[in-house]
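Table 4 source record.
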Amino acid sequence: MSFKVAFLLSCGGLSGGAKVILEYAERLALFFPWVETTVFVRDQVPQWFFPRYCEVTCASFESISFDKYHVVVLTSPDQVEVYKKWYEKVAMVHLCQGFEVDYLENLGLEHLRKDVEEFYSLSCTRLVVNGYLKKRLEAFCKDRIVNIGQPLPFGYPRKPLNIENKLRMVLVIGSFLYPFKGVKDALNVAWYLKKLKGLQIVRLSPHNTLNLEKRFSVDVFATAPPSDMPSLYRNALLTVYMPYKDGFGLPVLESMACGTPVIARDIPPIRETCGNDYPLFSSVEEALKFAVRLCEDRKLYKELVEKGYKRLRRFNPKWISFKLLTVLIAEKLSRFLSLKKNLSTV
């Protein structure tokens, strides 16, 4: 008998958040053949993801019958109607990659605060990708919160190149449209590196904002599918990632897993990802000063590459998939025992 899990994904557009959900579903079915996973995408099937083990299908959530699934995994507050309709019938959990309340004002979505807070007030086991988010949610809701961790994405790690074989380029990743992503600060660091060290700026973004970024003298502007990213990270000399807010900081992990040092802002989730002995920065000036030093000091560069690789043990995909599955089975068992108890009292 198979164990059936449904994941709900509100948007199939290219993003780190969508990629993580799809990869969780793919890995559960890969590592545990008796688990069947289906990802229901509300708006469009992601053309950049090529599943081999899970099913990905486009569907209106309202039209889906979840009776045949053992657990439904919610991933966004806008799925609250699914919760209200099915919570009494099917075991449910919420997989949280970032606390939406923290971003509403920056995104101009303050009017949605009440709806988001309603979602987090509902009784539901919450799964988070790191200790930072667990602590953040504990201050807001009383649900059971389980830190299952973030697995290393598909295609990683990659064997590092020697600094002599690296291309003279610096990667800047993220959407310029979201100020909290700190892309403007990252571009400032990259622009100075181009001016002082002759590095090319390679800009990777889910949105075409080249016209807004022309003054930073970007050399290459592209939207790259996940399959292309490991090679780009591996060949780059540096990655610059300077968000003011983030749920995890996936580009940091990906870059370290390809042997490319990251110049990143010192915020709690990124500090947790990198570890306490990895240098992080509070300002553009500090970040630039260290980046220039990295370009000149090969010993320091190699030390940072090694530190990054040591952190990868924390993000073992099989172990994290096992933790996720354990929680899902426990949730289903808990629901079964609860229903059994209720029936016995009738």
